[in-house]
Amino acid sequence: MKKLLSVFCAVVVSASVIFAAAPIKVSLWEKNAFPKDDSVNGLEIGLGSYTREVRGLAWNLIYTKTDDCLGWQHAWLITFTRLFKGLQTGMINLNSGEIRGIQKGFFNKAISIKGLQIGFINVAENMEGVQIGFINFIKTGPVPVMIIINAKF
Predict the structure, then answer these.
(1) Angle at 50 between CA 135 and CA 57, to 5 degrees
(2) Three-state DSSP class for 9?
(3) How do residues 78-88 score in pLDDT, each as one tens digit?
């Protein structure tokens, strides 16, 4: 019985290590990264990267792409995300799903956002919040296009 319990504990500990998210990931480009984990709980940095899930900070020089991000996603040029909660910053910020938080950049685009968009051009199909910028577009808004500020609640 003791041997069986020892084997069970070893399997559980090994499985938890294998399936745990990396605390830090350094990416050269796309999947050329160390470690090659698809999940990061902490810091994900590099030139350009795709990481399926980030909980923490995703900071890349050229671009960063995530399917699911909670925290701060930043790239000097372009950010992509599907599900996002937190702060998304870059020259161009694109979202193909839902955002809860803030998008800040020159051009911001979201399918569904609950929060704030700050940029020169802001685009949202569905929004519950405020857009601040030169051109603001909310497809389902009472006034779809506005300059300076637009909102829908």
Answers:
(1) 75
(2) helix
(3) 999 999 999 99
